[in-house]
Amino acid sequence: MSDRHALVARLHREAPLTDVHAHPSLKAYLFGRNLWRHYGSGGAFNPFASRTDFPSLDRGGVGIVWAAHYVPESEIFRDCWLAGAAARLSGAYGRLTKGTPFERLFAMMAALEREIARAPNQAELARSCADLERIRADRKIAVVHAVEGAHVLAGDAERVGDLAAAGVAMITLTHFYANGLAAHVDGVPRDMWLRKVCSFDFGLDGPALTDAGRAMLAATTKHRMLVDVSHCTPAARAAIYAELDADRPIVASHVGVQQRNPDPYNLADDEIREIAQRGGAVGVIFMPYWLCAAHPTNGVDAICDTMEHVQAVAGSWDHVMIGTDFDGFTDPPDDVPDASELPRVTHALLDRGVPEDDVRKILGGNARRVLERGWR
Length: 376
Description:
Strands 1, 2, 3, 4, 5, 6, 7, 8 and 9 form a nine-stranded parallel sheet that branches. This protein is globular. Helix 2 packs across helix 7 (101-117). By secondary structure, it is α/β, with parallel strands linked by helices. It has a single domain (3-374), classed as Metal-dependent hydrolases (TIM Barrel). The chain has 16 helices and nine strands. The N and C termini lie far apart (40 Å). The mean pLDDT is 96.
């Protein structure tokens, strides 16, 4: 092993390397995947890709993954006949329709926990920051529960307490469709081939933040759960900043920046400063479509450019994280197709002259600080 590769491996171990937004549970739940096997990284938007299985995480030196549990909205089957056909052919349709979305969420979490339990000496679920420290001291991969899309709560803020009791650290307030809480952006790439065969009605009109949304935010404060503003509109994000106490750290777990791609999905500079002032952080998505208006196929440069922009606006490297969105039916960079290739980003940051102490922050130190401040 070269000196540089040894340095990267050490930085990943010391940080530890943390992905604050990935979807290993989606494949485990929908397709019964064994997460201790690597099936193949696949291509763009491949629903059967295997990007955050445990072998890939281990090869990439990932020590902590925040598992974003996303329960697909039922409107997808209304709007896209192909999605319904694919779900039936793959055998996943029953899992996508049986019971309530809240019940499906807990079934998805249970599926991931079963996979973790296959190798208790190699991975473990963390339900607190103390758990994280213990698991990492044992050199195991730590998994943290997160929820993407509060539609699963059906407007019932009391259910936030149920999530907290299950160990959920963070919730993303919106996703693809209206949920009566906050306004959401169009989160499906405009050039995605699926849009040519399906007619999506995402219901993009609505108030920035509703009374039910305010009640949901109050519940996250009560139960010390992080709020993720990804997928919210700029107006909704502004309303969330105004609603939460100034000392609450806020996360944008998997986004780009408007300076490089002026899409409402991405953060404006004043939002980066707002998140930084609160002690929060921005997880940079590993999807070139959102990172750069030119939509390149490779992504390492776009990822690092975005990280450098967040650093320049925030004034330090204290507010940059990694939020790949791997296994979320996304189109990852060709040069970082799965978690095993994450060292490429670390090499690139070092090549750009980012000091080792700051690289450790980006890789995991900032994520740890945010959890310690915002999780129960």
